[in-house]
Design goal:
The protein is an alpha+beta fold. The chain is about 50% helix and about 20% strand. The strands form 2 sheets. It has a 4-stranded antiparallel beta sheet with strand order 1-2-3-4, with helices on both faces. β2 and β3 form a beta hairpin. It starts with a helix and ends with a helix.
Length: about 170
Amino acid sequence: MNYLLLILPAATIAAIVIELCTIPARIRKMEKQIGTCQLELSRKTSPMFIGGVAVALILPCVMIFRPFEPLYTAILCGCAVLGVEVVIRERVYEARNGVYENALIVDGRYFPKDDVITFPELHYEDDDEEEEVDELYRRALKIVSKKSGEVYVGFANGDERDAAVELLKDW
């Protein structure tokens, strides 16, 4: 039997456990970087974290009992590790949605203050008419950043978005 097909899944499980153990350190580091909260946005938690970690842990266990070709084993192990990284980031960011001194965290995305170029006004903000605007557009904000380019993020409601925009104008 090829030992590579046993070593990769075992290393994947170890990497996932290490990733999970680094969550508190990641949170502390991020809290130092972002500063104090100026506006707390609605925070939600998703059950996808537990599901994503469970699937990522089951995948290498299945590969131990059902061997694949070495290339497929490496790809699936890499996907499991990256999947856990994604759900960890989602969990950490969603629990800290808000406008901070040095960052904006909204919609599961992290925007450092020095990375944001501008917050262009959306098309309906310049309208003087009191026409009915679709709620989806009223909850959205366009952010232009150096790293991500143009990104649209969503808020829980229009009032929350308006409060965040007022703070971000002076940012």
